[in-house]
Amino acid sequence: MERIVINDVGPRDGLQNDPTAVSPSDRIRLINALVDAGIAAVEAASFVSPRAVPKMAGAHDVFAGLDLARADFSALIPNRKGYELAKAAGAKSVGVVLSATETMNQKNINMSLDKATDVCREVLQQAVLDGLTARAYVAVAVECPYEGLVSPEKIEQLSEIMFASGASEVIIADTIGAANPAQVASLFSRLVSQFGAARLSAHFHDTRAMALANAWQAVQCGIRKLDASIGGLGGCPFAPGAAGNLATEDLVFMLEQSGYETGVDMNRLLSAVELAETLVQHPVGGRALAYLKKQAA
Amino acid sequence: MERIVINDVGPRDGLQNDPTAVSPSDRIRLINALVDAGIAAVEAASFVSPRAVPKMAGAHDVFAGLDLARADFSALIPNRKGYELAKAAGAKSVGVVLSATETMNQKNINMSLDKATDVCREVLQQAVLDGLTARAYVAVAVECPYEGLVSPEKIEQLSEIMFASGASEVIIADTIGAANPAQVASLFSRLVSQFGAARLSAHFHDTRAMALANAWQAVQCGIRKLDASIGGLGGCPFAPGAAGNLATEDLVFMLEQSGYETGVDMNRLLSAVELAETLVQHPVGGRALAYLKKQAA
Known about the structure:
The structure is a homodimer. By secondary structure, chain A is of the alpha/beta class. Chain A has a single domain, classed as Alpha-Beta Barrel (TIM Barrel), CATH 3.20.20. Helix content of chain A is 44%, strand content 16%. Chain A has twelve helices and ten strands. In chain A, the strands form two sheets. In chain A, strands 9-8-5-4-3-2-1-10 form an eight-stranded parallel sheet. The first copy, chain A, has a two-stranded antiparallel ribbon with strand order 6-7. In chain A, a hairpin with a 3-residue loop joins strand 6 (143-144) and strand 7 (148-149). In chain A, helix 2 packs antiparallel against helix 11 (266-280). The two termini of chain A are 27 Å apart. The interface between A and B is medium-sized, with 30 and 30 residues.
């Protein structure tokens, strides 16, 4: 059986976008529950300004409270200062975020795309010098809420810069959940042929209910590492569980059923979903959760 | 753009499995709403015994109330008697159902697989003689609730018999929603290479939330005709919309977004979802419905 690695972004991308604030100690509990379930990689925290993103306050405490040998815990890094804080907190793996369009960078971080690219380049180079694992997200990689469709050429070009700056992995992120599987096929085929599947990862949101189909298509293109979020944590503007990140339990279930090995124990993963629900105090869960719970009962 | 034909089975497979009984005149309203939305094929009724399946009573009235020139309206046929009733009602297209396992046939219709195959063969041959369009479902084509996994060899063999008996099309049905996209890839690749994609159709249920991924994979194998059910009608043992047939609106949305032409107008399709909800008096809708409604608003 072929192995597929799941990177659970629930404790960061998920909780950052949830209406409920969750304390660092509770975020540690959730992260440990994911590792207990066999999840090998977790996006544990984001070293952003606690004034700008209060929900991610306490990132240092989160890293201080983790047994860093247990899994691949990564820290999301917005800039050089965040990098220094992450390094000081003991993070061994950092991820920078580069949005693929001019307007998204202007609106989001008040920088030009060129400037944002430079910041990512510098942080990646420093992380490599410091002996950390350096990763890069290329965000709004299919469609931007301001500029619309993003060209695969642009994504290839930005990925190339991130690799050249020292990124060991580039995560292609459909940040707003706008991708369809035809776009995934064409974008990932191109990137895999250019960079090789082993250095690429995929990140999907389920806004349009296509996240599983997109994940399947990415796997068909050779991708063997995917982001997902426990319980689909990560914002539910329309209905619980309907628009957040691709839910970890949905992805694990599809992959295991399809003959791939994820290393994840589904019963323990469902316990992590329950814990997530307790922490955010509202229903969570992916598309298959009702079925999975019934099977487990 | 390549065309993909959607056969809406909501008025039959959907309503037959819904807790609410819907009158023939209301079923006609729903069918017409689907055709108004651009759906080119509808499974309109089942000519079964009204004692055995009270929800499908009035199949004759349904066909009598339709303008048969407007779309490809098919009748589901369990046996020779049902065939005669469908023909008398004016149906121009009939579909027989052959479950792929011995136990499913015994439990469902108290026949051996051999006997059920003979009945299907006779009805198909008669339909061809009578100048009707003859189709065959091969049901539980991936997994049987009694016998477990079903071999692709068996599905190929039964499909071959159905084609040899005059079926112009064989619909491969994951009746219990147990298929994963890896199984879909292997089964449909095999069948397409044996029989050609133009004579095959696919029918998925969303029990495990993989229906869209499975549909996408079937399309990748060359399939250009799929069943779906308006609003995901067709039984929701766990949660509304979570376990029925693949919802027509989800499938149309994914295919149109992916660059295929379905001929369906999404706003009118959403009106049909609303009508379906009114008729069954409980929430219906596929995985993407909340998003689609918001977009339409």
